[in-house]
Amino acid sequence: MFLLFILVSLISFMGSLHPGTVNLAVVQTTLSQGRRAGLWLALGGSLPELFWSSVAAGGLMLLPMQLAWTSWLAYAPIPVLLGMGIVAFRQKAVVFTTLVTNGQAAGSGALFPFWKGVVLGGSNPQLLPFWSAVWLYLSGSVLVPVGQSGSLWVFAMGTAAGAFGLLGLVAWLANRKRQQILRYLSGHWLNRLTGVLFVGMALWQLIRVI
Fold first, then answer.
1. Which residues contact 205 (CB under 8 A, 6 or more apart)?
2. How many angstroms separate the CA atoms of 188 and 93, rounded?
3. Structural domain harbouring 152
4. pTM to 2 decimal places
5. Is the separation of the CB atoms in 191 and 91 below 8 Å?
6. Cα 68 from Cα 62, distance rounded (Å)
7. Cα(35)–Cα(41) distance, rounded to whole angstroms?
């Protein structure tokens, strides 16, 4: 179970490197309202991972896996992961439009940072197919006991822990290294790193099922 938690946390951490709306909101909130507000937003942004990963894994666990057609489920993660990898490669670099001077932004959001994070994270349409693909990907591994009792909750906790670890790190870096973190998030390298991760997972799954 510990290995499952660590592996899922790592996948979630790496997957969250992709500079999406939550990552950028954490940076902007930290720069304009301080590190504490950024961490509250990071916490709110990571909690939807619990819900969507539980829905994904729980729904798949309810399927009657003894049926012959379910063997095709092993192929399901391949197009999902491959597609997300291609999207990451093709996405343009992020450009900040909010002017920040001495830690003060031109304006601040009306929502409390925590609930703003919950809304932004919960509205991510990629969470359900992504965690469904990851659950199916891990189900075929002898190293990860996804079939054991309580594995769903360990899986869900790992998704949230990894996401919060990354978002918390983003908040800390944004507070300590303001201009540097803006340059990193505005570059292409994070998109390419995320794309390599997803494409690599898709290719490994293909090798396993062939």
1. 74, 77, 78, 81, 137, 140
2. 5
3. 2-93+112-209
4. 0.68
5. yes
6. 15
7. 10
Per-residue pLDDT of the chain (210 residues; tens, 9 = 90+): 788 899 899 999 988 877 677 887 888 788 778 888 889 999 999 999 999 888 888 776 665 554 555 556 567 667 877 876 787 677 665 555 444 444 444 344 435 889 888 888 887 767 888 888 888 778 766 656 666 778 888 999 999 999 999 999 989 988 887 666 666 665 566 567 667 877 887 787 778 667
Split into its structural domains, the chain has a count of: 1
Place of tokens 């997972």: 201
What type of residue sits at position 53?
S
**Is 40 a domain residue?**
yes
Question: Would residue 127 count as lying in a domain?
Answer: yes
The count of other CB atoms within 10 Å of the CB of residue 148 is 11
| DSSP-based helix, strand, coil % in the chain, nearest 5 | 75, 0, 25
